[in-house]
Design a protein that fits this description.
The chain is an all-alpha fold. The protein folds into two domains: 74 residues, no CATH class; 61 residues, Arc Repressor Mutant, subunit A (Orthogonal Bundle). It is 69% helix and 3% strand. A hairpin with a 2-residue loop joins β1 and β2.
């Protein structure tokens, strides 16, 4: 049955990409899905539906694996250096210098804009911050978006 699941490999990758992850993450998630399905098949799970692969079961496995990956990302401490090699250009990037540029531009902003940006970037979702502060969601969203846009414009 695992061979039948693998026949739709490209479909699983495309489905996972629609969750909002990168191609590399999608490949990892699909690989994890194969391992999970393989273990479950060894335990006697029947994932067939009318003699074919139960696509809904595969979809739910992919979605659950994706959500678990997202939760792990949220729990990891944020660092100023994530990668030293830009995969798109193949060039090394000094993330410390880039981070310093962003921090310098942030220091030039109004205190409120800086505070909202840092809280949403590092600690809270916009909804959580809105609930905690009683500031409207749209106000926080617009502030965060405008600061992000300004930073991109000035740093790039």
């Amino acid at each position: 049955m695992l061979e039948k699941v693998y026949e739709s490999h490209k479909k699983w990758i495309n489905t996972t990409l629609k969750f909002g992850c990168t191609k590399y993450e999608a490949e990892d998630i699909v690989g994890d899905m194969y391992l999970i399905i393989g273990k479950m098949l060894n335990k006697g799970l029947d994932i067939s539906y009318n003699g074919e692969v139960n696509y809904y079961y595969i979809y739910k496995t992919l979605k659950t694996t994706f959500l678990q990956l997202e939760n792990k990302k949220k729990k990891l401490p944020k660092t100023s250096i994530d990668l030293c090699l830009d995969l798109a250009s193949g060039e090394y990037i000094d993330y410390e210098a880039e981070n310093d540029k962003v921090e310098a531009e942030l220091d030039k902003l109004h205190w409120y804009d800086k505070k909202v940006y840092n809280l949403i970037q590092d600690e809270y979702s916009i909804t959580e911050l809105s609930n905690k502060t009683n500031i409207t969601y749209h106000s926080l969203y617009n502030t965060f978006r405008s600061v992000k846009k300004a930073l991109k414009k000035k740093v790039k």
